[in-house]
Amino acid sequence: MVSSAAKPRSTPPQSDHGKGAAVPDAGARGITLPWQLAGLAALFLGLAAALIFSGAAAAHSVADPGALVRWGLPVSKAIHNVSLATVVGGLIFAVGILPRNLKGRNPSPRGKETQGGAEPEHPAFTRALAVAAVAGAVWTLSAIAVLVLTYADVAGQGLSSDPAFTQALVYFMTDIETGRAWLAVVIIAAVVTTALFGLRSLGGLALTLILALIGLVPTALIGHSSSSSDHEGAINSLGLHLVGVSTWVGGIIVLALLSGILAGPKPGAATDITEPTLRRFSTLAGFAFVLVFASGVINASIRVTSWSDLFGSAYGQLILAKTAAAVVLGGVGFMHRQWVIPQLGRKGSTMSSRRVLWQLILAELLIMGVTSGIAVALGRSAPPQPTELAPDASPAFILSGYELPPELTPIRWLTEWRLDWIWVGVALFGLVTYFMGVAKVRRRGDSWQWFRSVNWVIGLVVLTYITSGPPSVYGRILFSAHMMDHMALTMVAPIFLVLGAPVTLALRALPARGDGSRGMREWILVFVHSKFSQLVTHPLFAAANFAGSIILFYYSDLFGYAMRDHVGHELMNLHFLLTGYIFVLTMIGTDPLPRRAPYPMRLLLLLATMGFHAFFGVSIMGGTGLLAADYFGNLGRAWGPSALADQQAGGAVAWGIGEVPTLLVAIGVAVMWSRSSQREATRVDRAADRNNDADLTAYNDMFAKLAERDARLAERNKLEGR
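The structure assignment produced for this chain is given below.
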């Protein structure tokens, strides 16, 4: 049976467990097309069953758009989700898992071979991009279908070629939030697809992957999450969930489609990349599973708030079914990691281990199809909790999405929390991966300073407190709290994070690849030495960005957008964290940089930024116009100072508190300068000891010769009577 598994078969192989019982033809050479299609069929079967069970496809009692729209919309969404995941999976494999060329050598500009000794593309790399390109075309078409069918569903009318239908559809795309979101998805999908058909450089493909992931944002901002009681928590957890699902599901789909060519002409030969491909994807899938499961539980807990709703409603039961499927998939992934992949890594791995490998992946594909169908049905089903804005909603809830917190007191600087799951996820990921790196470095016998680890932990704790704690809660209500939040985000957390030296740790802990693929270590080095890095880490640019972006942000409409819009708020946090991190890195960081400023210039730049912050704080303190007046002036806050008085207090925060971290950084620069001078002096002394002070002797001999020459010249001039 093992020997015949590698040969083409016209009939399914027989099972060892029962005579005549068919098993999937997923042998040593991979998963065949019929079983790949079976995974897609499982998606639609799961979708149909979930829609019927939940009643989401039943006829509407009022303004029913017809069966075509009721069934066509979820089917289109299912195709959209699968194709988007496939695009993401294909790009991940091309950018970070598969070797670029057959022998790992530099490719030609067009990616195919042949001049200058460049090797042709690896067949797996070529197929991964081909799969992603085709999936991108399907993604674009399905997004268009979802856009049109969503309008028909909202309007309660069937599809029509009537000009009035077209005119209303255009209004839906340009003026209604849901329509604008799906229009953005269509545009992103079209751009990504175009890039996939034209790009072959790894840098361009990495940017395309980022753009494809951005395509998840509009879908996270609409639907049930956008109208939940904790709408920002629901949106953030759903966004993380979509990233994890797209990575995991898309990776499994692409892996199944690559299964026939990973082994090359002969399994186990030098051209066989099955084991490293599986090992790399297994690590990524492990993080994706944790992300999917944790974010799914968080999102479900926001929508379903009682046990009776969980077990007694169709929505809750669909969540339970989806959770059970995710646990089974996690178990299958654990089997891959613990048993199957180690067998493949051993010399002379058997065909039976490869058969088990592809059978498990086939099982994952089938279960994921059913789970994806359930997920689409969940999006069409009404959760137990109401999702409509209450008619008596307060001004604060309308503007910020939350009711006013209680009056700010000293103790509430510790007690009022609203978890921002994106930044909580970032902090947890940073904590886990950092200490995984420390453990790996120490297992190798190298040392890692505890001082760096402590600073990294403190930085992550501070970051979590800033983004999820009282500064964030009250920063949406009080300008003074917002300014404290901003100053801590851009000037306190970065100091500790920079002192943790995460890039240095990553370069020490991550293994270098020798097969031409780019892992995290290779991508870090590419980024560090890139033109973009040279620009943003240039000391003058970093200082100008650190100081100047404050003026551009607060004295433009960007500030109001960041306060009103969730995406704007998250981008604000990201921007100020990065600007602060880069500036501090150029001042006192030890991680590798394209260039470093001399110590005198660093001190001058720090003094300049201190003066600029002082000027900014004083201008806010003396200002009489309210910034973001349509937001802070309409919150209906009955406690605390007036909006203008609070803004002026925020100016004092920017002036007073903002200078302390900058002064600490200046002290750090002075200490580093002193230590650098001491090291240079020590180096010179050691060199003098080695060569018997040859440099000083040569220096003194030079002056002695000059003095002797001057004496002879003076004597000659005297004799000549000059």
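Interim note for the steering committee: The first helix runs from residue 2 to 5. The mean pLDDT is 81.
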